[in-house]
Protein 1
Amino acid sequence: MKKRLMSITSIALITAMCLSACASKPADSGSAAAPAGDGAAKTESGASEWDNSVAMILPGLITDEAFNQFTYEGMVKAKDELGIKTAYKENVTQDEQVEVLRQFAQQGYEIIIGQGGQFGEAVATVAAEFPDKQFIFSVGTDTFDLPNMSAATISYSHAGFIGGVLAGLNTKNNKVAMVTGEFYDTHRMMEASFYKGVAYVNPDIETTAITTGDWADTVKAREACLAVIAQGYDVLFPCLDAAGAGVAAAAQDSGNVKVVGAVADYAEDYGAKDVTAGSVVFAWDELGYRETKGELCDGKVHVLGMAENGIRPVINMELNEEQKAIY
């Protein structure tokens, strides 16, 4: 391997250069919410310095100890600081998205966030109906050419490249696998960057990417990972929500497999210090916080990378001199 002394920050900058790289009737003001048809969305209120009100629609539960919880907590932080009136609805399915978004707009919420890569078309549909409201497609990179629709996400490109480098440094079989729930645009960006990061270490390493079909199902994640482990893949790079615990379990059960986590700190959050080489932690709370404050409502695409505190690499392995030269 050609030795190149490079810091984590430099890796992120290289990635940026290479890749150039938001129906039951909601209530009037936010706390926890039930699925459509099972109860009302919840609200919390205060006096905003902007005189804004914000509603967040989530695909999962705010107690998932992952994406949904952390973006929600970011909203709560902004509410507490600025007195913003907020509302949210959790566990919203794709079939329910348009109606829930529309109901929040009808109630007068000024900023409405579809939280997750699956919300793009639904957010665009409702944003076109309510041009006087601001909409955010969160974990997305498409504004659908609507002036009142913005997009915001963590830098999946930066995270993928750093994860790829760590995976490449840890494989003994020269076979590494990315694991995700589904592929939205941001995850395709991560996949491409992951492959670039692996090739940066060694272009001969074999790579693959698999989906589990569910972001939170730990059993599905574990079974999917055991299947690729059986094919000789000895480093796993998961990008999941609560299902990440299943990836950690599969690696621990196998005994000779390492995990390079994304989103969560796998060593700490899933008690997997024995198999975790490192993680690229996503600051979902920072994303939810900025969205709620209204900082990202300008009709543009916003990507939070390392410079914006969107991601934070955590290294658990001890690098030898050759690995340090690469990393």
Protein 2
Amino acid sequence: GDAGFNTSSNTFTQTVHRLDTTTSLTSSVDPSRPHQNVVFTAIVSAVDPQAGTPGGSVQFLIDGVDMGSSALSGGQATLSTTDLSVGQHTVTAAYQGDDTFKGSGDALVQTVQTVGTTTGVASSTNPSAFHQQVTFTATVTADDPDVGTPEGMVQFTIDGIDQGSSALSGGQATLSLANLSIGDHTVQAEYQGDETFSGSADTLSHTVISAETSTRLTSNHNPSAFGQGVTFTATVDAVSQFAGDPGGKVRFEIDGQDQGSSALSGGQATLSVADLAVGDHSVEATYLGDDTFNPSHDAMSQTVTRAGTAITLTSSSRPSVFGQSVTFTATVNV
């Protein structure tokens, strides 16, 4: 107061509110792949741009699990992780606020996808011969070359029948076998995939043909003498050492005349004759083949010479007397 007025007073409460903020959450890569490093960034701003930059910390949660807090620097806080599994994940950033700024938050859905792959299957020999060993190779590559080389298992099937699985090594898996029947076969290689890579498959048509053979014709006497017995032997072998021994029959011809067929036994068939005329003869042996082995042929020239002879001369009376009748006999032997 003063000389003219009495003293008086009053009080009131002044409330100072913290400033509002907004939080924005982003991902460095979305979608991401398994084990890929993903950085989540929370940007916290004051609603009033004149209020300055908020301080404090941001709490991160992934699928409701606390991932810890990160201090704001220049209005930003980050969380890095490589542990996200395949699927969708809810990521939340909650600004805690401080004495000046209110808290705020944001959330996003992070998708983690497996990496696509491409599988190619090839045959070591196509077509292959019956009983020939064939190796099928499956090559699996990642569609994104920066991801690395796929690992895991490849399942092989032939004509829909499971042939078992083989582990990838350097992106390749193999299947070797030698028991394919003659004809066309469908071969499939299916990569099973893993937690990083998605599966893929490929097929090819593989053909197995009859095994090639070779026939070799020999004579036990060449040249032979007229009237001498001669045996011709046809030896039939598979060209591939894995094909086994050919079966079936061999047809013989001499000078174009059919001499009949002889069954193979231990890979050999024979023809014996003793009535060849003097001179040169064309002898042929033709393996007729079967369901497994292809035909083959060989020929040779057989020479028949005149037979050697020996003459024995005898006398009916030796010595004889003058005037006695004597008979001389000449005997010719072969």
Protein 3
Amino acid sequence: MQLKTRLQSLEKELQHKHDFRKNIIGNSPPMIKVFDLIEKTLTNNLTVTITGETGTGKEEVAKAIHYNSTFSKGPFVAINMAAIPKELAESELFGHEKGAFTGAVAARPGKFEEANNGTIFLDEIGDLDPSLQVKLLRVLQEKNITRVGSTSVVKVNNRVIVATHKDLREEVKAGRFREDLYYRIFGLTIHLPPLRDRGRDVLLLAVYFMNRFCKENGYAAKTLSDEAQQKLMTYAFPGNVRELKSLTELACVLSAGNEIMASDFHLEPNNLSPGFYNDSYSLDDYSRMIIRHYLEHNDQNVVVVAQKLNIGKSTIYRMLKDEKGII
């Protein structure tokens, strides 16, 4: 009875952890669209394809779908197709029998069997070897697998979620991805926007990562200086959310006091300008960016900046006062 209670408690913890509207951070228009699409996946077994650049959080979305769906009582099994050697991929996916090949000293189930009655997440599906694409197609169509070295058929019941940073339509045109498999996994597509297109989500995420890192490592609570916020808002983040997390955690370590300064964020200089252009920014956002830029290059002299921009000092003070309320 105690074990059953503990298991139920763990299930609730997992569901809370993957309550995507609380734990996938962001409220920009592109992310609201992502949340709406996630909602549409939760009460059916439709195959889901998650697309987006590296580091945008595709596995987190896959977990959110699983733990909030009708498959949540089953296992979530993830496999990165780009990380598996070609000669081992079939065994990893479908399992093998003892003696099926050199080194197969015992029978072992594959990922599809491990994920039975749950969700299998095939990350970087675009890197799947062509010889295995036809076998995967058959499994998806017939819902059964055959282990390497066996002739027996094993029925499987899986929710299938796939992800890729590639354009699969272009891969099909180039002959690297089977057209029939492409249409079989087409299902519902969720595109994760790059961080540079998510506006102020950058700051929400930075604060989230900062607070979590400080709590986990026993640091006193920290804040982001106005200059640090501005620096993050004008960076392109080629590594997306994953890069922001690493940069923020490093900044927590490097900061001398309880306020993280712009100099604590070590950004790639070649990626500073592209992030400036963003459909999520308002005219006031751009105005603040310009004012901050001039202040940083004029020793924070408001009078000089007001003269160079041909605006009043009161306008600068008002803009900066409004900016302090962003987080």
Protein 4
Amino acid sequence: MPDERLPVLAKIVKTEKIIPAVVEFYDIAGLVKDAAKGEGLGNKFLAHIREVNAVIHVVRLFEDPNVIHVSEKVNPVEDIETIRTELALADLATLEKQPEIRMNATREEQAARVVITKAIKLINQGNYELAKLLSEDEKVTIQHLNLLSLKPVLYLFNVSEKQLEQKTATEKLIKDTMNELNIKASNLYFCAKLENEVLSLSGEEQREYLKSYGLGEIGLNRLIKSAYELLGLISFLTAGEKEVRAWTIPDKYPAVEAAGVIHTDFTRNFIKADVIPYEKFVEVDGWTNARAKGLVESVGRDYLMKDGLVVEFKIGT
């Protein structure tokens, strides 16, 4: 996870060890029509994708006769619809495999069967976006099924260098594509060819090259940050002589649970947390001055964490 705050903190606390937050991406081969029936990588693909927290759907927009498309034509609407259909059909198979309700079924099993029946009906009617069509309570009820259609999706459009330069036209094409499919989801666009070229350049050369296309940073960094936001994640920071580190937690996570991300014992033995916004920490040049100026807040276990807090946990024995 790119984080320009970490080197600044490292300089203040005089450490060379920097550990950024991590977002893992799994590059899985493209899905083809009838994958749910075993075509292409079929169920092997679907088994992999069930384990992820979110789906990044890379959609081709660029035209290049030297790069073969599986359908022999570039049609982003059809490509997106193929993926959505195959994921929904895979979910339908999962839902239909669920056993019928027993006479002595628990309240939870009865509730799950109601939602399963509703989801089957929605998919059969061509309504594939279960994440939007089911209530939060309904989604929790069947979360054990790990349905693909319930995962948040980010659409990543792969464009040409020319399309990158024609920003207005490209953004209109993406908007029209999403509107035609009635999809309201996060999206980004990038040029894979350009990304490969940029990686061979030095930091300053990268910035100048990207600037010529109206970009502030490489596509991978933008993707990571967007994925973080999509999943509702934030980072809190720890800064000491041993290391400077960013820790990943859900937004508004209680301080006691955040402590447990560092070590499970910290949850059990939590006393308090000293917190200060990153900007103030940098402004006063570290913990000593921050405490002397009364800028450090001592908070309890139920304090809701915010992104960019520099934190020091007090743990009992």
